[in-house]
């Protein structure tokens, strides 16, 4: 069995692991990154990127169908699902290929295989071809991500009972789609297939869709889903299903208060969350602390075993690619002996529904829970010329600030390009900006970004294009 000595072994080449390995390489650290599957992890292969490709295609499809209102005559718009999947696959391939070459050019050695931590400073790697190697290392970075949760009564069969992975790979548009879990994945993919023509039903266990998101924002998304024919059951649980003679599925749903319903559908997408991948590769044996499946780490990314670090989904909530990447970068700096810490003000979140939802910092409710006296500014997209010009006027921008000091505490957007607009809010929060900073900054006209300026001005009582309270 061969033995080598390196500075760091990164386990997992997802959006936490690969940026960590690249940065380690940039910092002249000898690094090996071990991945059992494809580089890029969930995000690049079947999460963020594939779903965003499908979301953009479904959005374009819907816009094209509605283009006559703009005076554009478009006839016979239809979806070629195979071509759509091939196009999506091409994007994924380009990105994963890019990651491979970035690892290589930064001297991070990629091993395709499985890693097992056998000591605080040793990792045993078994390559896909079955070769074993023991690596001595100064640091080990656990970046193993998370896996889709299955629920009783709905064992994945890869065809009709599916998770997100299959959900982004369908080569047929389901006529009737039932989504279990009205969270991020459920609503993003549910919206895609609804736009492509599926009859959509959502079964959500809690009283609200997208639990944890400001209900003011989710109401806008829910309204649009329902307007387009979606049936949404809240406080409801899917219990199990039977297969009908015609191949469709009859799903029994508990609606609470003793009521039940049966929903007939062709495909069930289960999207009830993800669980961290922390078991079975040596952490337990070494006494690394595991808390409800997560491998917690401190501000420098260290677990309770100082040579072992954790980043990304496996390290804790929120399970977001950009949080994983930043954690990976911080840990790389620490391993290289630099000063760094996970000390950001906010981790912005985006939900690619229609319209999009994007948030950074505290919500109104969270600020009030902390006993802060707040000042709210709100500006609707319906008052923006640019939003009218792109025919997307649903939603608003809401800013939450400290009533007395005017310091910005949170930005919450539901509307067109919310995903792109939120970065201004995130930067403002990191810089501890005040409403005046945003309100006095000249935002170019006509843009959706003006909504941010006007929302801040509204918070100060002097927005120009809407009435002030
Ligand atoms: P999620 O936690 O967002 O949503 C799961 C939903 O399922 C919740 O609303 C929950 O109340 C509900 N639920 C749980 N058990 C249920 C049951 N038995 N019956 C009905 N409803 C039930 O999880 P999701 O959507 O699976 O996403 C997984 C992770 O991936 C999340 O942590 C999310 O942050 C991340 N993600 C992020 C995206 C983004 O940033 N745009 C996109 C997709 C995923």
TrEMBL record:
This is Dihydrolipoyl dehydrogenase. Its EC number is 1.8.1.4. Residues 347-456 form the Pyridine nucleotide-disulphide oxidoreductase dimerisation domain. Residues 7-328 form the FAD/NAD(P)-binding domain. Its cofactor is FAD. It catalyses: N(6)-[(R)-dihydrolipoyl]-L-lysyl-[protein] + NAD(+) = N(6)-[(R)-lipoyl]-L-lysyl-[protein] + NADH + H(+). Binds 1 FAD per subunit. It is an enzyme of class 1 (oxidoreductase). Belongs to the class-I pyridine nucleotide-disulfide oxidoreductase family. One of its GO terms (molecular function) is dihydrolipoyl dehydrogenase (NADH) activity. The active site is a redox-active disulfide bond. The keyword Transferase does not apply. InterPro entries: Class-I_Pyr_Nuc-Dis_Oxidored, FAD/NAD-bd_sf, FAD/NAD-binding_dom, FAD/NAD-linked_Rdtase_dimer_sf, Lipoamide_DH, Pyr_nuc-diS_OxRdtase, Pyr_nucl-diS_OxRdtase_dimer, Pyr_OxRdtase_I_AS. Keywords: Disulfide bond, FAD, Flavoprotein, NAD, Oxidoreductase, Redox-active center. It holds the Pfam family Pyr_redox_dim. The lineage of its organism: Bacteria, Pseudomonadati, Myxococcota, Myxococcia, Myxococcales.
């Amino acid at each position: 069995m061969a033995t080598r000595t390196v500075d760091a072994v990164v386990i997992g080449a997802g959006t936490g692991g690969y940026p960590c390995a690249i940065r380690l390489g940039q910092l002249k650290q000898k690094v090996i990154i071990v991945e059992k599957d494809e580089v890029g992890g969930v995000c690049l292969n079947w999460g963020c990127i594939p779903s965003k490709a499908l979301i953009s295609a479904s959005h374009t499809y819907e816009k094209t169908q509605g283009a006559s209102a703009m005076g554009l005559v478009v006839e016979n718009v239809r979806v070629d699902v195979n071509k759509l999947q091939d196009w999506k696959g091409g994007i994924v391939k380009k990105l994963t290929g890019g990651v491979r070459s970035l690892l290589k050019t930064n001297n991070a050695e990629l091993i395709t295989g499985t890693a097992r931590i056998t000591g605080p400073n040793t990792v045993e790697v078994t390559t896909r071809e079955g070769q074993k190697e023991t690596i001595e290392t100064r640091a080990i970075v656990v970046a193993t991500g998370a896996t889709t949760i299955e629920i009783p009564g709905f064992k994945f069969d890869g065809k009709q009972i599916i998770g997100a992975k299959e959900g982004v790979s369908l080569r047929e548009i389901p006529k009737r789609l039932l989504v279990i879990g009205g969270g991020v994945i459920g609503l993003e993919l549910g919206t895609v297939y609804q736009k492509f023509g599926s009859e959509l039903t959502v079964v959500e266990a809690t009283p609200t869709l997208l639990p944890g998101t400001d209900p003011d924002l989710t109401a806008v998304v829910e309204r649009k889903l329902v307007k387009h024919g979606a049936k949404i059951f809240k406080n409801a649980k899917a219990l199990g299903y039977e297969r009908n003679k015609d191949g469709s599925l009859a799903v029994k749903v508990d609606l609470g208060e003793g009521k039940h319903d049966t929903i007939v559908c062709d495909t069930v997408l289960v999207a009830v969350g993800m669980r961290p991948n922390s078991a079975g590769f040596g952490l337990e044996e070494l006494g690394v602390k595991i808390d409800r499946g997560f491998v917690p780490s401190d501000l420098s990314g260290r677990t309770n075993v100082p040579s072992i670090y954790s980043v990304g989904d496996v390290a804790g909530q929120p399970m977001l690619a950009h949080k994983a990447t930043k954690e990976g970068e911080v840990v790389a700096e620490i391993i290289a002996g630099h000063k760094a810490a996970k000390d950001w003000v906010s981790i912005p979140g985006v939900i690619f529904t229609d319209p999009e939802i994007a948030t950074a910092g505290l919500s109104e409710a969270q600020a009030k829970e902390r006993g802060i006296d707040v000042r709210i500014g709100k500006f609707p997209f319906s008052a923006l010329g640019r939003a009218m010009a792109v025919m997307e006027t649903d939603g608003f921008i809401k800013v939450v600030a400290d009533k007395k000091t005017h310091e910005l505490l949170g930005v919450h957007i539901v509307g067109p390009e919310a995903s792109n607009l939120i970065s201004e809010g995130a930067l403002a929060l990191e810089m501890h900006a005040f409403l005046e900073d945003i309100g006095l900054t000249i935002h170019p006209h006509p843009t959706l970004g003006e909504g941010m300026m006007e929302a801040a001005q509204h918070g100060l009582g002097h927005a120009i294009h809407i009435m002030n309270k």
